[in-house]
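dumping these here so i dont lose them again. two proteins, back to back, each one seq then structure tokens. dont judge the mess
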Amino acid sequence: MSATPTTSTPSAGQHRLRHVLGQWLFHLYGFAGYAFFYLPILILVIFSFNDSRSVSKWAGFTLRWYEAMLQDRQIMLALWNSVFVAVVSTAIATVLGTLAAMALERYRRFPGRLIADITLYLPIIIPDIAMAIMLLAFFNLSGIGLHIWKVHFFGVRLAVPISVIIGHVAFNISFVAVVVQARLAQMDRTLEEAAQDLYASPWRTFWRVTLPLMMPGVLGGALLAFTLSLDDFVITFFTSGAGFNTLPVRVFGMIRKGVTPKINAVSSLMLGFSLLLVTLALLAARGREERKVGFF
């Protein structure tokens, strides 16, 4: 008579060992992922304080590259151009994107709904180079051209790049609409119905109930649009006229002559500004979530 084979079950100690080992591997995988994404940024910030022109050899701590950046008139002008375009395009895109999100979320059935959805998502899907070429062709064929308007504002002469602002608005509307639409989908419609039952007009219901509830989405979409506009290079490069540079375009021109720690200083400044915006947006969103929504 042959003996039947027996299978040994893992003991409690083996289960505990596998659990601890799995946790360590999970934490190691997460640490490796964060290091892969953020270690190059940390190296860039550290070498912006390098006392050598070489970006691969540390020669001591210095602030002279930040001083050189602040004294470079072309860099400061490009920074002003970037902020100006980002502010104007973000304001326009936030209003139009919020209205588009409300139309698509609140009115689900209307003629051309599918076409509107496809058109709204196109700037997110298509590559930047394709959209830049399309905008360039549109400006040339429509007669708008790559013009820069010179206007005087409180005694200051400003350069207003119409083609760049239109190009940034064109792709920022989609990002704002997607974020706001996601916020509207999570809102409780009964609060608006309660306000209307209490004889609030549609306009007062919107200002006192709907807008405060969806404000975190509006702020998130505006922050995303501002960051994308400030960081954009491809569309700006194709739609900007002669004599107008934003900071990414200026940095690209500097890199063609060689990478120096001054470029690292410029990048670190943009990084710090972006982190400041994110922090302010999170604090504002948290404060609005903690407040009670007033109906009148």
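---- next one ----
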Amino acid sequence: MLRRLQKDPDDEIAQLFYKTFVGQAELRYMEYYVAIGKAKPTLSVMVYNAEEGLHFRNFQWGLDWSYTDKKSGKSYARELINSTCEKVFFVHREVIFSQRCVIPLDGYYEFFHFSGQVYPHFLYPAEGLFYAAGVWQETVDTETGELTTGFSIITTPPNPLAEKLHNNPRAPNGSRMLLILPQEKVMDYLDPDAGKEDLQKLFVPYSEQKMEAYPTVRFLKKEFSGRLNSEDVRRRIDYPELFFA
């Protein structure tokens, strides 16, 4: 972000980043080399409202969701780390039109499955940053009364690169990728007046030509315990067996 500001002093998002986390230090920037969704990490996200304009807030990754079928009476509850764009207007109907967020990332991981083994790959933008689209909501713990704000990242069908790498045969929704917005579309997504059709136009796979990927060390193994938030997880490993995958 700081490099972007030096390159383009008029970059609105880079200006906001500097003001919030460096200049006035209004908030702590939650930075990770790898964030594991199931661990419920707190991440820095961008939101917009008429009173404060575009600003950063720190939210917990993961959104509690529940639903009761009126016909059958059955109740369903789960934590949504990610949410599909095809179902977002149903699953998040209470917040999709009023509580959207964008998460800036310098990349994310996919886990390629080949011959019974799993190979992490780091996907990153050819230039700039990724801006992942999400929704957020405040929930109250009924036992403690504690207020938590969580978010879920929206996913789309994959582009060819993501389709190859996100090939987990057990993935409940098949191959997917994060809904990544070009920087010029960030405010279109956060626009409080955006309707269903406006948002659906943004629910498209990110261009394969604008992203790159490489295989990394298997950082989820026990020997990496305590080193997940370090440059070690980004170390490139060219596995010979993958040259034929």
